[in-house]
Design goal:
Distance between the termini: 48 Å
Largest sheet: 10 strands, antiparallel
Strand content: 35-45%
Structural class: alpha+beta
CATH class of the largest domain: Mainly Beta
Shape: globular
Helix content: 10-25%
Radius of gyration: 16 Å
């Protein structure tokens, strides 16, 4: 992993259809932190991936070209702060304090869940689910060991946070 640090890569998992692309910021034995490159020459937030069932790390000529354009555009390809990748408990607590709203995904690609922390214990995460209209819609719980990806600081999440803040003013 060291050789990919601060470079644009794509990560494939044996048990997920989705391929994650971004700049490798940090990693541990259990987690991988990417600065997202969802498509073209765009940087959008961060993804923390559970380092489980990793199939391959891809770095092709297309990646080099995209990386060059992103850097020429002056987009930041590093993290502004150190994000603790110790365990899911530590990660969630950090995101709750620093970003409030985050998105989680389980193994299935079918759905992602946005929300803010209500409760976190050694086995379970309970969030206040954030709907697409920027309203909190009630509790959802997840087993910590089922969480495979956590996203934060994306344009979509930050846009919904603006709606929440605007509604508080009324």
């Amino acid at each position: 992993m060291e050789k990919y640090l601060r470079q644009l890569i794509s990560i494939e998992f044996e048990d997920k259809k989705e391929i994650f692309t971004g700049f490798l910021i940090d990693w541990t034995e259990d987690w991988i932190l990417l600065k997202n490159n969802p498509f073209d020459f765009i940087i959008d937030g961060y993804t923390i991936l559970k380092n489980k069932n990793l199939k391959s790390i891809i770095q092709e000529e297309d990646h080099e070209f995209t990386e060059k354009v992103i850097k020429l555009k002056g987009l930041k390809t590093s993290a502004e702060e150190i994000i603790p990748l110790k365990d899911v408990y530590t990660i969630i607590n950090f995101l709750d304090k620093k970003h409030e709203v985050f998105q989680i995904a389980k193994k299935s690609d079918k759905a992602v869940y946005l929300g803010k922390l209500i409760e976190l214990n050694e086995d379970e995460l309970i969030i206040d689910f954030l709907g697409t209209e920027g309203k909190f819609d009630g509790e959802m719980s997840f087993k910590l060991n089922k969480i495979r990806a956590i996203e934060f600081d994306t344009d979509y999440i930050n846009s919904l946070k603006l709606i929440i803040e605007d509604e508080k003013k009324k």
